[in-house]
Amino acid sequence: MASRNINVWKSVDKVTIVIYLILVLFGWISIYAAGYNFDQASIFDFTERSGKQLLWIGLSFLIAAVILSIDTRVYEIYAYPIYIGLILLLVVTIFVAPDIKGSHSWLVLGPVSLQPAEFAKFATALALAKLFNSYNFKFTRPLNFFKVVMLIVLPMLLIVMQKETGSALVYMSLVLMMYREGMTGLVLFGGLCAILYFVVGIKYGDVLWCGAPLGEIWVLGIICVVMVGMVWFFADNKAIARNLSIGYMIVAVVVAILQWVGVELPMLYVFLGVVALSLLYLLVMFFLTFAPRLLAVAAIALASVGFLFSCNYVFNDVLKPHQQMRIKVLLGMEEDLRGAGYNVNQSKIAIGSGGFWGKGFLNGTQTKLNYVPEQDTDFIFCTIGEEEGFWGSCLVLGLFTALILRIMVIAERQPRPFGRVYAYCVLSIFFFHLLVNIGMVIGLCPVIGIPLPFFSYGGSSLWGFTILLFIMLRIDASRSEHF
Amino acid sequence: MRKDYNLEKRKFVIAGALLVVMLIYVIRLFSLQVGDNDYKKFADNNAFLRKMLYPSRGFIYDRNGQLMVYNQPAYDVMMTPREVLPFDTLDFCETLGITREQYDRRIADMKDRRKNPGYSSYTPQIFMTQLSARDYGRLQEKLYRFPGFYIQNRVLRQYSMPIAANVLGNIREVSVADMERDDYYQRGDYTGDLGVEKSYEKVLRGVKGEEILLRDAHGRIKGKYEDGKYDIPPVSGSNLTLSLDAELQAYGEKLMQNKIGAIVAIEPATGEILALVSSPTYDPSLLVGRERGANYAALVQDPYKPLYDRAIMGMYPPGSTFKPTQGLILLQEGVVTTETSYPCSHGFIAGGLRVGCHGHASPIPLIPALATSCNAYFCHGLRAMIDSRRRYPSAAEAFEVWKRHLVSMGYGYRLGIDLPGEKRGFLPNSAYYDKYYGRNRWSALTIISIAIGQGEVLATPVQIANLAATIANRGHYFVPHVVKAIEDSVISSEYTVPHYPTIDAHYYDYIVEGMRMAVTGGTCRLAAIPGVEVCGKTGTAQNPHGKDHSAFMGFAPMDNPQIAIAVYVENAGFGATYGVPIGSLMMEFYLNRKIDPSRQYLEDRMLNSNTIIYSGVKKH
Q1: What is the pLDDT of residue A474?
Q2: A381 to chain B: nearest residue by CA?
Q3: B4 is a domain residue
Q4: CA B258 to CA B613: how far, in whole Å?
Q5: CATH number of the domain encompassing residue B223
Q6: What is the pLDDT of residues A320-341, one digit of tens each?
Q7: What CATH number is attached to the domain comprising B460?
Q8: Which of A302, A327, A352 is the last residue of a domain?
Q9: Residues of A in Cβ contact (< 8 Å) with B43
Q10: Disruptive mutation site among B2, B14, B229 for chain A (greatest number of A CBs within 10 Å)
């Protein structure tokens, strides 16, 4: 195969670059609006954050140009050295970083502060891409799976040690890439179920129904439904699924009649009994058919029941009161507008007061008057919500969705696993940031301090995302080159 | 090139997850931003500090344009509890001249929702009112040290003359009841108390304005919202022009010094009150500023009740000033003509009943009877009316006719003066006597004393003055009022419509004649003013509180009257002793702006006399 060098400026993906430029510009204007202080400072004033952000933007353009001009093979060849270098930097950071609001994640170099955690993302993505691209690599092999997990967990641990839990959680998002590369979907499904069980179990844990916490009864009910679904789709045994659902319906009718007649039933035990009987039925069927997936379904159901009771235990007996409070506030079980709920309440007020068309550029009162903390970093989306209203918020969501879908298109057109895995890492990271950042600002996710890409103020974050994105674009630009 | 098409399908799962999340977020944003309006309100409450702008209270002028009441600046110390940061309390208390205990009590009072229903730690609350200019200056310099405190400019009253406290009234801080009654008021606002300050409160107070300031999360003021585009400027209160003649009022108060009683002078042609004196009175500026509380308490406890406006609240037996009404009723009802004479043998004697009188010719017709204030004539007249079964089926019905005439002349009910607290006086009705004596168990003789303004009949000085004005007008009156004009507005039409009593106008001529004769050759000779034809009627009212009340009612000049007057001096004896001199001096002063040298002795006598000693009130 002949190698031919292409003109990177011609083959680079223009759509992504346009979306990138729009987002960065939008972000810059939003930072100006968030910091605008009624005294008409210029957007170019370098003592203001908008002015500094302009400087960071200029530098990130420079970084992008440099990245695009470097031969794509360099990234592949130096993937591990880059990864190791960043890991060392993370280690060093833990020891030399000053305490900034409890976090030890900033390297101070004279007038500039850098957050290595932001740069570890692209390094990890490169290392993963390189690993997946190695000769005869099969992700399904346990050793390979272990290697992948280690590559991800190492920077995570170091970042946790820097007391930047939010940034560490971002690496969890790489399960999306792993899913795309062949990891069983049960992991994602199990994760979703775990979140659902936890939320339902805790949220309705205080409500009593027929002598038992309503949350536990509901979760047991959901476990039954999930069991039927898994038998139908995963074990692909429609007959058993049908029998199970018929059995549930009979139980439901009997219980309803007994309730109506006035018989007090210990509901928790009724549901537990139903789950136990279903498990027994599945086990019997497993021994009759020897279908291993039936056993897996039974095991997952059993694990779910175990999870339900252990997370109740953890929540009530292990978590400290302030941690319980945060979760309760998020689930809307408690109001604590002065404490744990202050940020989110104020950010909801700011966004909610924007209305459909917004208050107009620079006319927001909530963000201007500092009611929303971190309004130009993690809570920057409030400014958009308040000043540009519903349509502006949707525009931002739409731009990010377009960007992520475009990354997916780029990923899928890569000829080699290296490019695809890298691009899916980029996708996963952007998706997670979008999901968590906007989710927390509108009160749907717990408050985890991670920035909104290209919007939140800060050079490290902007450069980190720029590098992440442009290495992908550089790899994509040479996709027709062959080694 | 490896490609696993089974795995590639997973991109749809990932894209689907992304789209589902985005859909959930869009729905959430929609419900926050478009569906729910509460957030807008929360945001406004967060960001906007609505600061009251207080209007200037309307000034008050007398009828000649002399300024009587105006405003002086005062300074209230305000605090927004949530914005208060730790500060040097000792320094603060010292600057304001209060003790630490007083400071704590003020804070406790402020937070007590029973005393301050509008309390909120987010809004400015009154900490202390009416700072002196000196304390204001000292605090202003140190204010930066006390975050959360600021100074609010307010308006207090200033009086250019120490007179007419009963008419002017004063202003006080609103009470909880005021705030509940009218949500215009907030704690620390001022409202009128007594006098025109109360009755014209809504005209005088103006409309509060509002300034919208932006406040950040730390409560710091960041400037005006939209450069004040939505600010509402305050609207100053309207100025009032009183009908009072300040000089006449001052003269009246001087004449009444050391006496208890009232003077009401009315311009008959309009019903405008020229002077409304209640004695003893007080300096209205006593009720201004921080000493108001103590002074007010002292006035309330004063046994002579200076806060009690005797001119409109004092209910007195009208005595002989009532006789003109009797003459009018008898004429109107045809019981007597001017030719009808009744005998008087030093009084009215019927059976065992005797109403005394003094020496004069007998028998006597109406006009001289008025001039000499003959009791017997009016007793005979009332008896002839009430006991006339030819005219009226029963005494009760005759009495009702009598009463209706008096009501039409302004007795028995409030006239409707534009001052708070007017009393209605008292006129009995037949039911009252039925209850007292039994149905058909009473007759003219039972109630004869009402013929001479004694007995059950009670009238306020303003009602008596109104009678004088009615007679001066020969048969109509305007509701007496103290406000002549309101800036930018007209006074209520109830003060500009004439009222016609149920007496034919021409009968008034006889009464005028009788009252003129009283001055030229009857009981009111002291009322004669050189060059002015004065009409008058004395009154000497027996009362259960001691010496007789001395009363006078009159008007001048006889033709084209300029002033009608009623004078009532408690426990001062004969009407001619105090009532007549004071009434005539007032009229003379009003008409001529000076007292004729021949009458100077009267003025001196009035100024130097003291009747308060007869009042029976023991001050010491």
Answers
A1: 94
A2: B29
A3: no
A4: 9
A5: 3.90.1310.10
A6: 777 777 777 777 676 666 566 6
A7: 3.40.710.10
A8: A327
A9: 349-350, 352-353, 365-366, 386
A10: B14
Give the pLDDT confidence of B34-79 residue by residue, as tens digits.
887 777 777 777 677 777 788 889 999 999 999 999 988 888 888 8
Domain around B91: 49-242
> How many CA atoms does the CB half-sphere of A3 hold within 13 Å?
6
**Alpha carbon B15 to its chain's center:** 81
More confident residue, A451 or A185: A451
Among A366, A410, A424, A441, pick the best mutation site for testing chain B contact (most B Cβ within 10 A): A366
pLDDT (tens digit per residue) in B258-271: 999 999 999 999 99
CA–CA dist B352, B310 (Å, integer): 37
The amino acid present at B338, given as its one-letter code, is T
Q: A36 — contact with chain B (CB < 8 Å)?
A: no
- Which stretches does DSSP call E strand in B117-208? 125-131, 149-159, 170-173, 190-193
Q: Exposure string (b/e) for B286-308, b if CB count within 10 Å is 16 or more?
A: bbbbeebeebbeebeeeeebbbb
**A212, A169: one domain:** no
Contacts of A354 in chain B (CB under 8 A): 33
Q: Name which of A332-336, A342-346, A451-455 the model is least confident about.
A: A332-336
Of A185, A355, A417, nearest to B34 by CB-CB distance is A355
Strongest mean pLDDT among A258-272, B196-210, B261-275: B261-275
pLDDT-derived band of residue B81, with 50, 70 and 90 as boundaries? confident
CA A101 to chain B, closest CA, distance in angstroms equals 20
**Mean pLDDT, all residues of chain B:** 87
Question: Is residue B3 predicted with pLDDT exceeding 70?
Answer: no
The amino acid present at B388, given as its one-letter code, is: S
- Test mutation, B18, B41, B48, chain A, max A CBs within 10 A: B18
pLDDT of residue B256: 93
Q: Mark yes or no for CB contact A353/B7 under 8 Å.
A: no
pLDDT digits (tens, 9 = 90+) for B136-169: 888 888 888 888 888 887 778 889 999 999 999 9
Q: CB of A135 within 8 Å of any CB in chain B?
A: no
**CA A37 – CA B442 distance, rounded (Å):** 89
Q: What is the pLDDT of residue A424?
A: 96
Helical axes B323-332 vs B507-521, angle rounded to 10°: 150
Which of A401-405, B143-147, B412-416 shows the lowest mean pLDDT across its residues? B143-147
Q: Do B25 and A412 touch (CB under 8 A)?
A: no
Q: Do A349 and B223 count as a contact with CB atoms less than 8 A apart?
A: no
Q: In Å, how far is B148's CA from the nearest CA of chain A?
A: 17
Considering the domain boundaries, does residue A158 fall inside one? yes
- Which of chain B's residues have a Cβ under 8 Å away from the Cβ of A357? none
Q: B22 and A397: CB-CB below 8 Å?
A: yes
Q: Which domain range does residue A303 map to?
A: 188-327
CB crowding A325-358: b at 16 or more within 10 Å, else e: bbbbbbbebeeeeeebbbbbbbbbbbbbbbbeeb
Give a yes or no: residue A55 inside a domain: yes
Residue B145 Cα, gap to closest chain A Cα (Å): 23
Q: What does the alpha-carbon distance between residue B533 and residue B518 come to, in Å, rounded to a whole number?
A: 11
Q: Do A439 and B25 touch (CB under 8 A)?
A: yes
Number of inter-chain CB pairs under 8 A, A vs B: 122
Choose the closest CB to B223 out of A38, A397, A431.
A38
Q: What is the mean pLDDT of residues A415-440?
A: 94
Average pLDDT over residues B451-474: 93
